[in-house]
Amino acid sequence: MREYARHEVRRSRERARYDVETVHAILDAGFLAHVGFVVDGQPFVIPMLYVRDGDDILLHGSIASRLMNQLGEGVPVSISVSHIDGLVLARSHFHHSVNYRSVVCFGTARRIDDGEAKATALAGFVDAILPGRAAESRPSDRNELAATAVLRVVVENASAKIRSGGPKDDPADRALPVWAGVVPTQLRYGEPENGEDVAGQAPPSVRRLLQRQNEVITA
Amino acid sequence: MREYARHEVRRSRERARYDVETVHAILDAGFLAHVGFVVDGQPFVIPMLYVRDGDDILLHGSIASRLMNQLGEGVPVSISVSHIDGLVLARSHFHHSVNYRSVVCFGTARRIDDGEAKATALAGFVDAILPGRAAESRPSDRNELAATAVLRVVVENASAKIRSGGPKDDPADRALPVWAGVVPTQLRYGEPENGEDVAGQAPPSVRRLLQRQNEVITA
Questions:
Q1: Which end of chain B is more exposed for a tag (fewer CB within 10 A), N or C?
Q2: What is the extent of the structural domain holding B122?
Q3: Where are the transmembrane segments (chains A, B) (predicted)?
Q4: Residue closest to B147 by CA, chosen among B204, B65, B76, B88
Q5: Is the same domain home to B42 and B141?
Q6: Do both B46 and B119 map to the same domain?
Q7: B73 and B40 in one domain?
Q8: pLDDT value at B119 more than 80
Q9: Band of pLDDT at residue A218, cut at 50, 70 and 90
């Protein structure tokens, strides 16, 4: 089992995972990361779209963005991705929790300057939002590529943390007349809304997304 | 309109908001924050449960947690909360986006030591996960309070950023035979699962949650 270099989890160690498969699966299940970096000793955490590329993470933004320019200078970054899977309702306040899958990564960002690599990355961001969508829409042209900064974050170490299952109540609390259990949560997709001046049915990428979602529910 | 001291948004300024009502509403709609801080020049971003208290944000963790102890020393933190509202599918890769509501805050954390204030805070975390749940479950006892560190982050400045609506395609792309629009997304709650050794129906807090959710859907 291949592992990332460890960023050791110290609290709730039983929830920690370092294998590449687990870390990749959590990263691949999302498209919004929270990216942290330091400017003059001050921490910043900014939500950004991302896509995984091998063991690395790609970010993008406007070429005119101060943030992109700062990050592209090779500063250390921390990237966190979290999915909420349920509300964990215990008999006591103390044991309330949430079920989640999260990854915390550490690495260094570098700008990608090669045009072809940038175009591939930008298609990757589109497919991270919705698999199959890049092939359905117009790729970036030369001007759009020039206007976009793409960063490759080489992930130097990473850890995943997963909580699942029901509440862990104190034995002494089991007699309390309090309901305990889990309310599962999930990011759900609703009916597609056509854009202005757009006619016709949603494309295969959207139909597959909704179909997969319904299969999960009826399974 | 009361505003937070501005952490000025530089990119996509038209999406920025600084009024307290907007910032509070985004914070109140969630319970998971990404908290950033600096240790020896290295940024860390960690997912944590939170609850808003007035203009401040409360965090908690184990008294034995290195993280809690570091944060409690009054170091600067950045806290980001994001909600994803939809996939924005444009005719071009370039204009793909997501609809979201996010807040980025900056402040300083201080430990709360008063037992009563800690108990109130811990009830607040429970109600942040599920409104009304604190009153249904056992409050923290003296040992649990002693085992829990609670931090108050005094928010010194904050900004909200909101994107909503459809894709903003280039006029030249309107003729392309590409569907464009929005797939709305929402964190949805599923059927409650009883904990081990738990009999009976889910409590009013859970039933209200599911009822509110269904009202929104049929509205």
A1: C
A2: 13-85+98-168
A3: none
A4: B65
A5: yes
A6: yes
A7: yes
A8: yes
A9: low
- Reported as a single tens digit per residue, the pLDDT across B138-183 is 999 999 999 999 999 999 999 999 999 999 999 999 999 999 999 9
What is d(CA A211, CA B9) in angstroms, rounded to the nearest whole number? Answer: 38
Please, are residues A51 and A27 in contact by the beta-carbon 8 Å criterion? no
Query: How many domains in chain B?
Result: 2
CA distance B107 to chain A (A): 10
Q: What kind and span of H or E run contains A194?
A: strand A193-194
B112 within a domain of the structure (yes/no): yes
Of A45, A90, A130, the CB nearest to B45: A45
- The pLDDT, as a whole number, for residue A13 is 78
**Both tokens of residue B177?**
């035979």
CA angle A78, A82, A83 (to 5 degrees): 165
Closest partner CB to B198 (pick from A180, A188, A205): A180
One domain for residues B159 and B195: no
Is B31 inside any structural domain?
yes
- DSSP code at position B95: G
Whether the predicted pLDDT of A131 surpasses 90: yes
B62–A182: do the CB atoms touch at under 8 Å?
no
